[in-house]
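Aim 2 progress. For Exodeoxyribonuclease III, the working sequence is reproduced below.
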Amino acid sequence: MKIATYNVNGVNGRLPVLLKWLGETQPDVVCLQELKAPQEKFPEQAILDAGYQAIWHGQKSWNGVAILSRGHEIKELKRGLPGDPEDLHSRYIEAMVKGIVIGCLYLPNGNPAPGPKLDYKMAWFERLTLHAAKLLEYNLPVVLAGDYNVMPTELDVYKPERWVDDALFRPEVREAFKNLVAQGWTDAMRKLYPDEVIYTFWDYFRNAYGRNAGLRIDHFLLSPQLQNRLLNAGVDKHVRGWEKTSDHAPVWIEIAEQ
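Predicted C-alpha coordinates for this construct:
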Protein backbone atom coordinates (compact mmCIF):
# COMPACT_ATOMS: atom_id res chain seq x y z
CA MET A 1 0.00 0.00 0.00
CA LYS A 2 1.52 3.27 -1.11
CA ILE A 3 0.66 6.36 0.94
CA ALA A 4 1.77 9.84 -0.10
CA THR A 5 1.69 13.33 1.34
CA TYR A 6 1.87 16.48 -0.77
CA ASN A 7 1.57 20.14 0.12
CA VAL A 8 0.10 21.29 -3.20
CA ASN A 9 0.25 25.03 -2.38
CA GLY A 10 -3.14 25.67 -4.01
CA VAL A 11 -5.11 22.71 -5.31
CA ASN A 12 -6.84 24.53 -8.15
CA GLY A 13 -3.85 26.51 -9.36
CA ARG A 14 -1.66 23.39 -9.28
CA LEU A 15 -4.32 20.93 -10.46
CA PRO A 16 -2.51 20.00 -13.71
CA VAL A 17 0.62 19.19 -11.68
CA LEU A 18 -1.34 17.16 -9.14
CA LEU A 19 -3.18 15.18 -11.81
CA LYS A 20 0.01 14.51 -13.77
CA TRP A 21 1.74 13.23 -10.63
CA LEU A 22 -1.25 11.06 -9.65
CA GLY A 23 -1.31 9.58 -13.13
CA GLU A 24 2.41 8.83 -13.04
CA THR A 25 2.69 7.33 -9.57
CA GLN A 26 -0.84 6.14 -8.64
CA PRO A 27 -0.47 6.06 -4.85
CA ASP A 28 -3.26 4.28 -2.98
CA VAL A 29 -3.79 7.08 -0.45
CA VAL A 30 -2.79 10.75 -0.70
CA CYS A 31 -2.79 13.41 2.00
CA LEU A 32 -2.92 16.94 0.60
CA GLN A 33 -2.20 20.19 2.42
CA GLU A 34 -2.61 23.88 1.63
CA LEU A 35 -5.62 23.46 -0.63
CA LYS A 36 -6.22 27.22 -0.41
CA ALA A 37 -9.80 26.64 -1.52
CA PRO A 38 -13.17 26.92 0.24
CA GLN A 39 -15.13 23.70 0.72
CA GLU A 40 -17.28 24.19 -2.39
CA LYS A 41 -14.30 24.95 -4.68
CA PHE A 42 -12.43 21.68 -4.19
CA PRO A 43 -11.99 20.04 -7.66
CA GLU A 44 -13.85 16.88 -6.72
CA GLN A 45 -14.85 15.88 -10.26
CA ALA A 46 -11.30 16.12 -11.60
CA ILE A 47 -10.09 14.00 -8.69
CA LEU A 48 -12.87 11.45 -9.31
CA ASP A 49 -11.97 11.35 -12.99
CA ALA A 50 -8.38 10.58 -11.95
CA GLY A 51 -9.68 7.52 -10.08
CA TYR A 52 -9.77 8.86 -6.53
CA GLN A 53 -12.45 9.33 -3.90
CA ALA A 54 -11.81 12.31 -1.65
CA ILE A 55 -12.74 13.93 1.63
CA TRP A 56 -11.57 17.46 2.35
CA HIS A 57 -11.70 20.29 4.85
CA GLY A 58 -11.47 23.53 2.90
CA GLN A 59 -10.87 27.15 3.86
CA LYS A 60 -10.95 30.27 1.72
CA SER A 61 -7.48 31.45 0.61
CA TRP A 62 -5.54 29.55 3.28
CA ASN A 63 -4.81 26.12 4.74
CA GLY A 64 -7.09 23.22 3.78
CA VAL A 65 -6.43 19.47 3.94
CA ALA A 66 -7.72 16.45 2.02
CA ILE A 67 -7.39 12.67 1.88
CA LEU A 68 -7.68 10.86 -1.46
CA SER A 69 -8.09 7.11 -1.91
CA ARG A 70 -7.81 4.94 -5.00
CA GLY A 71 -9.95 1.84 -4.89
CA HIS A 72 -10.68 1.83 -1.16
CA GLU A 73 -13.49 3.43 0.82
CA ILE A 74 -12.65 6.46 2.94
CA LYS A 75 -14.47 6.57 6.26
CA GLU A 76 -14.08 10.03 7.77
CA LEU A 77 -13.29 9.93 11.50
CA LYS A 78 -12.49 13.51 12.43
CA ARG A 79 -12.43 16.98 10.91
CA GLY A 80 -10.35 19.50 12.81
CA LEU A 81 -7.93 18.89 15.68
CA PRO A 82 -9.60 18.55 19.10
CA GLY A 83 -8.82 20.87 21.99
CA ASP A 84 -9.74 24.37 20.85
CA PRO A 85 -13.30 24.95 19.57
CA GLU A 86 -12.37 28.52 18.61
CA ASP A 87 -9.63 27.43 16.20
CA LEU A 88 -11.27 27.63 12.77
CA HIS A 89 -8.18 26.84 10.69
CA SER A 90 -8.62 23.85 8.37
CA ARG A 91 -5.47 21.97 9.31
CA TYR A 92 -6.45 18.40 10.21
CA ILE A 93 -8.60 15.63 8.78
CA GLU A 94 -8.64 11.96 9.76
CA ALA A 95 -10.05 8.87 8.09
CA MET A 96 -9.95 5.09 8.07
CA VAL A 97 -8.73 3.59 4.80
CA LYS A 98 -8.29 -0.18 4.45
CA GLY A 99 -7.89 -0.68 8.19
CA ILE A 100 -5.36 2.13 8.68
CA VAL A 101 -6.14 5.40 10.44
CA ILE A 102 -4.80 8.25 8.30
CA GLY A 103 -4.30 11.62 9.96
CA CYS A 104 -3.55 14.38 7.44
CA LEU A 105 -2.14 17.53 9.03
CA TYR A 106 -0.82 20.96 8.17
CA LEU A 107 0.99 22.28 11.21
CA PRO A 108 1.23 26.08 11.54
CA ASN A 109 4.34 27.81 10.23
CA GLY A 110 4.84 29.99 13.30
CA ASN A 111 6.75 32.90 11.77
CA PRO A 112 7.57 35.60 12.64
CA ALA A 113 8.99 34.24 15.87
CA PRO A 114 8.78 34.94 18.71
CA GLY A 115 5.23 36.22 18.70
CA PRO A 116 1.57 35.19 18.53
CA LYS A 117 2.08 33.00 15.44
CA LEU A 118 4.73 30.94 17.22
CA ASP A 119 2.47 30.75 20.29
CA TYR A 120 -0.33 29.39 18.07
CA LYS A 121 2.05 26.86 16.54
CA MET A 122 3.18 25.59 19.94
CA ALA A 123 -0.43 25.36 21.19
CA TRP A 124 -1.42 23.45 18.04
CA PHE A 125 1.57 21.14 18.50
CA GLU A 126 0.46 20.44 22.07
CA ARG A 127 -3.05 19.59 20.88
CA LEU A 128 -1.61 17.32 18.19
CA THR A 129 0.54 15.56 20.78
CA LEU A 130 -2.46 14.95 23.05
CA HIS A 131 -4.54 13.62 20.15
CA ALA A 132 -1.67 11.42 18.94
CA ALA A 133 -1.43 9.86 22.40
CA LYS A 134 -5.13 8.98 22.25
CA LEU A 135 -4.69 7.44 18.81
CA LEU A 136 -1.96 5.18 20.18
CA GLU A 137 -4.30 3.98 22.93
CA TYR A 138 -6.64 2.50 20.30
CA ASN A 139 -3.95 -0.04 19.34
CA LEU A 140 -4.67 0.45 15.63
CA PRO A 141 -2.28 1.06 12.72
CA VAL A 142 -2.01 4.84 12.37
CA VAL A 143 -0.20 7.14 9.95
CA LEU A 144 0.18 10.83 10.79
CA ALA A 145 1.27 12.44 7.54
CA GLY A 146 1.67 15.96 6.32
CA ASP A 147 3.53 19.24 6.42
CA TYR A 148 4.79 19.55 9.99
CA ASN A 149 6.74 22.78 9.35
CA VAL A 150 9.59 21.35 11.42
CA MET A 151 13.11 20.35 10.51
CA PRO A 152 13.80 17.83 13.30
CA THR A 153 17.63 17.87 13.09
CA GLU A 154 20.48 19.72 11.40
CA LEU A 155 20.57 16.96 8.77
CA ASP A 156 17.12 18.12 7.65
CA VAL A 157 18.08 21.65 6.64
CA TYR A 158 20.53 23.24 4.21
CA LYS A 159 22.89 25.52 6.18
CA PRO A 160 21.21 25.08 9.58
CA GLU A 161 23.10 28.04 11.06
CA ARG A 162 20.88 30.34 8.98
CA TRP A 163 17.69 28.93 10.50
CA VAL A 164 18.43 29.14 14.20
CA ASP A 165 15.77 31.77 14.94
CA ASP A 166 13.19 30.52 12.42
CA ALA A 167 9.95 29.00 13.75
CA LEU A 168 10.60 25.84 11.71
CA PHE A 169 13.89 25.20 13.51
CA ARG A 170 13.75 26.89 16.90
CA PRO A 171 14.73 24.63 19.81
CA GLU A 172 11.24 24.55 21.35
CA VAL A 173 9.70 23.49 18.01
CA ARG A 174 12.21 20.71 17.48
CA GLU A 175 11.71 19.62 21.08
CA ALA A 176 7.95 19.44 20.51
CA PHE A 177 8.48 17.17 17.50
CA LYS A 178 10.91 15.04 19.51
CA ASN A 179 8.39 14.69 22.34
CA LEU A 180 5.67 13.68 19.88
CA VAL A 181 7.85 10.98 18.33
CA ALA A 182 8.88 9.77 21.79
CA GLN A 183 5.29 8.65 22.47
CA GLY A 184 6.12 5.63 20.31
CA TRP A 185 5.94 6.95 16.75
CA THR A 186 8.44 6.10 14.00
CA ASP A 187 9.74 8.78 11.61
CA ALA A 188 9.41 6.61 8.50
CA MET A 189 12.02 8.37 6.37
CA ARG A 190 14.65 8.32 9.10
CA LYS A 191 13.97 4.69 9.95
CA LEU A 192 15.01 3.72 6.42
CA TYR A 193 17.54 6.47 5.74
CA PRO A 194 19.00 7.56 9.09
CA ASP A 195 22.01 9.46 7.72
CA GLU A 196 21.01 10.69 4.26
CA VAL A 197 20.38 14.29 3.28
CA ILE A 198 16.72 14.29 2.21
CA TYR A 199 14.67 17.40 1.47
CA THR A 200 10.96 17.80 0.70
CA PHE A 201 10.73 21.60 0.23
CA TRP A 202 12.71 24.11 -1.81
CA ASP A 203 11.91 27.83 -1.74
CA TYR A 204 10.99 29.58 -4.98
CA PHE A 205 13.76 32.14 -4.39
CA ARG A 206 17.53 32.13 -5.00
CA ASN A 207 17.40 29.00 -7.21
CA ALA A 208 16.93 26.87 -4.08
CA TYR A 209 15.81 23.83 -6.05
CA GLY A 210 18.67 24.07 -8.51
CA ARG A 211 21.17 24.35 -5.65
CA ASN A 212 19.37 21.68 -3.60
CA ALA A 213 19.11 24.18 -0.76
CA GLY A 214 16.12 22.49 0.82
CA LEU A 215 14.33 21.50 3.99
CA ARG A 216 12.77 18.25 5.20
CA ILE A 217 9.46 19.37 6.70
CA ASP A 218 6.96 16.82 5.29
CA HIS A 219 6.91 13.73 7.50
CA PHE A 220 5.28 10.37 8.09
CA LEU A 221 4.91 9.21 11.69
CA LEU A 222 3.91 5.56 12.05
CA SER A 223 2.32 3.88 15.06
CA PRO A 224 4.07 0.77 16.46
CA GLN A 225 1.70 -1.50 14.51
CA LEU A 226 3.19 -0.21 11.25
CA GLN A 227 6.89 0.22 11.90
CA ASN A 228 7.71 -3.36 10.88
CA ARG A 229 5.43 -3.13 7.83
CA LEU A 230 7.40 -0.21 6.36
CA LEU A 231 8.95 -1.36 3.08
CA ASN A 232 10.11 1.77 1.31
CA ALA A 233 9.98 5.57 1.35
CA GLY A 234 11.01 8.35 -0.97
CA VAL A 235 10.56 11.86 -2.31
CA ASP A 236 9.36 12.53 -5.86
CA LYS A 237 11.87 15.36 -6.11
CA HIS A 238 11.52 15.76 -9.88
CA VAL A 239 7.96 17.04 -9.45
CA ARG A 240 9.40 20.16 -7.79
CA GLY A 241 11.09 20.90 -11.12
CA TRP A 242 7.87 20.90 -13.15
CA GLU A 243 6.35 24.10 -14.49
CA LYS A 244 3.95 25.94 -12.14
CA THR A 245 4.62 23.40 -9.41
CA SER A 246 4.40 23.59 -5.63
CA ASP A 247 7.45 24.50 -3.54
CA HIS A 248 7.04 21.07 -1.89
CA ALA A 249 7.63 17.70 -3.53
CA PRO A 250 5.40 14.68 -2.91
CA VAL A 251 6.70 12.29 -0.25
CA TRP A 252 5.61 8.63 -0.01
CA ILE A 253 5.92 5.41 1.90
CA GLU A 254 5.07 1.80 1.07
CA ILE A 255 3.45 -0.37 3.73
CA ALA A 256 3.29 -4.16 3.50
CA GLU A 257 -0.19 -5.67 3.26
CA GLN A 258 -1.22 -7.75 6.24
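The helical segments are 15-25, 44-49, 116-137, 171-181, 188-192, 208-211, 224-227. This observation will guide construct design in the next reporting period.
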